Amino acid sequence: MLRLTEIRLQLDHPADDLKVAILKRLNISATELVGYTLFRRGYDARKKNAIVLVYTIDVEVKNEIALLEKGIPYVTKAPDMSYREVAQAPKGLTKYPVVIGTGPCGLFAGLLLAQMGFRPIILERGKEVRERTKDTWGLWRKGKLNPESNVQFGEGGAGTFSDGKLYSQIKDPKFYGRKVLTEFVKAGAPEEIMYVSKPHIGTFRLVGVVEEMRHSIEALGGEIRFQSLVTDIEILNQQVCGVTLANGELIATNHVVLAVGHSARDTFEMLRQRGVYMEAKPFSIGFRIEHPQSVIDRARLGAHAGNPLLGAADYKLVHHATNGRSVYSFCMCPGGTVVAATSEEGRVVTNGMSQYSRNDRNANSGIVVGITPEDYPGDVLAGVEFQRKWEARAFELGGRNYCAPGQRVGDFLAARPSSTLL
């Protein structure tokens, strides 16, 4: 198999042009081409009036070795992207690994352990995904918060109520990301996530995908328990020997995967009391900015705004200030909505989410500044108290009803309150 990169075609090219481009790049006849698979499709919009699609294609040919020896530019041997399990469960296993949390990390940890035969026990403090969806809409529509079932806590984790982005800037030489995408498609995600340059699923579709992943884990012998808050981890001679639930039940285990996310602050406190090593890390803080999606589309795509192959345009911005800090956009949601992401009473946090269609009127993005432990001196959990301080202030300024405080951009830049948001 050969991999061809940098195949650039016009935005409105006929379907046959892709095959023609492959034959031209390799300088072969159609009879020598066995088949091809689309690995990646992106676009180059640096020239708004001449946007081109950019393809990476995996190609099967009859004379692969001979073509590789020619040293054709942008033609290499396709890498082996198959996933290989690192272990298989031993026979007679009596203590099963425990995974705490059913966000993306917990779901995939549980799925891989189940695929290797370890029959994991997965514990989630919140509810199954459809029940937590009802509770989350209760917060958004009625201002009624369930501290154990909300945007942060419950099956699928915070990512269920977000844009469902499935790409990263980290290097992935072993193609673990391919495994993730493959499992999502098996669970019902659209197949296009395997090749579009910035794949996403969207909130409503994620609900069904998360459910199907749960069913796969259970079919492989895993167990998922909802409304099962872990209140303690039993440690003997520096070795984990079990976890205790809020109902008093002790589950014996020698292996625990902590996949609790960033909002399980009571769990962090428990870990500190148990002597588990932790360290304070930098994070970012800021606000959500919202603007018409049509403005972003025109700015990024020009006359091609609205083209279905391009979809709703996104952006990424960064500013390096003279004081050494960086301000940047984060989790940009094209055609999305700003939503409350609160999990503690008397506090407000905001997030953004999009549906698969990304066809809502507005776009939104986090605009945040990086801060370090030097900005919140104290013990290892001082950053949590720093966050709580500003979340409580947002709750107060928003009217104490879980609505976020809002301000027009011009007023924000002028450092004055807004008298109207229209």
Primary descriptors:
422 residues; alpha+beta; Alpha-Beta Plaits; FAD/NAD(P)-binding domain; four-stranded antiparallel β-sheet; four-stranded parallel β-sheet; 17 strands; globular
How does this structure look, described?
With 422 residues, the chain is an alpha+beta fold. It folds into three domains: 2-77, 2-Layer Sandwich (Alpha-Beta Plaits); 98-273, FAD/NAD(P)-binding domain (3-Layer(bba) Sandwich); 283-413, no CATH class. Helices cover 26% and strands 25% of the residues. It has ten helices and 17 strands. It has helices spanning 16-26, 64-69, 104-115, 129-142, 176-186, 203-219, 265-273, 293-301, 382-397, 409-413; strands spanning 2-10, 33-44, 52-61, 75-77, 98-100, 121-123, 223-225, 230-236, 239-245, 250-252, 256-258, 283-292, 318-320, 326-333, 336-340, 350-354, 362-371. The strands form five sheets. A four-stranded antiparallel β-sheet has the order 2-3-1-4, with helices on one face. Strands 7-6-5-11 form a four-stranded parallel β-sheet, with helices on one face. The chain has a four-stranded antiparallel β-sheet with strand order 12-17-14-13. A hairpin with a 5-residue loop joins strand 13 (318-320) and strand 14. It is globular. The mean pLDDT is 94.
